[in-house]
Amino acid sequence: MIQNKIQLVIFLGILSKASCDLYRIVLIEDPKTWTEAQSYCREKYMDLATIQSDEDRAKLKEAANAVNFQSVAWIGFYRDVGGWSYQNTPISYAMWESWEPDLPKTNEACGAVQSNGRWGDRGCTEQDYFFCQTDTQDTLQNKFKYIDIVMNWHDAQIHCRTHYVDLATITDDTENTFLANILSNMGRYYAWFGLHKNPLNPWLWSDNSSVLLSSVKWESGQPDNVNGNEDCVKASTEGLMADDSCSTLLPFYCREHRRIQRVRFTVKSDGDLDESAVMEAIEKKMKEILSDQDMEITSSIKWSVQPDGEIFQQQKTQENTQETPCEE
Ligand SMILES: [Ca+2]
Ligand SMILES: [Ca+2]
């Protein structure tokens, strides 16, 4: 007698595949300094939260409301205190006077070299003599030009760019001493050089995302730097920001990234579906998809059981299901 066994054939195909990056803002209520909070977020999540859009503010509010939090907490925004540069190239050599730079209350500051060889930050509208730099590198005498006329920093820069290359860049002790000696020989105290703190971008995000100053929402009257060292930023539950001392202990918001990969499978079978066989086939396929993206399943797969007790539902009609991939 021939045994007539029904062979179950399962065909598994991918109907659609879409991935999207989602994020969530998490409130950590344990108070920390800004730097401690940053380390914590970087270790457990992605970074301190970036609050730059209405969506960010809504997610921040959601995180606060979830635990009925009504106070202020750190976010990933801070003042660029080390932002001294030559034409936006950060300085690698500095010879500040011991109490300088001391202009925390202004966002605009320009650098001057003094006859004692030390540097000071000065209001850019001060009138000072200045040093230009030429395109000749052979000797220090040829490389630098002392201009014995007083101008504000910006006019001095225009003068140097018009007649030479730019305001001077001081890169080591030899150059610094050379310029200081010129000043003391001339009986002058200050001279501008190319050192400048960029006034357009004094604030940075912890995660290095670009700062769109137009989308940054401050509390009214902030930032005021009232303590002179308010280089870190906290936010209200509405996402309105204020500067505060970085050593203040505050709760904080972290940003968490989540990647959602949505894959729709089509399963065809010539018999009744054997759920466990389909599950096994889907699991295999998912591993293939993830390994294509250098990812792996780190925990076991969970299956949602539908109200009728089944995991899979037979699709009777071919619907045109246009899903938005990022909806959870
Ligand atoms: Ca100063
Ligand atoms: Ca403040």
From TrEMBL:
SUPFAM superfamilies: C-type lectin-like. Gene3D superfamilies: Mannose-Binding Protein A, subunit A. Residues 313-328 have a biased composition (Low complexity). InterPro entries: C-type_lectin-like (IPR001304), C-type_lectin-like/link_sf (IPR016186), CTDL_fold (IPR016187). Residues 1-20 form the signal peptide. The keyword Secreted does not apply. Residues 23-133, 151-255 form the C-type lectin domain. It holds the Pfam family Lectin_C. Keywords: Signal. This is C-type lectin domain-containing protein. It comes from Cyprinus carpio carpio. The lineage of its organism: Eukaryota, Metazoa, Chordata, Craniata, Vertebrata.
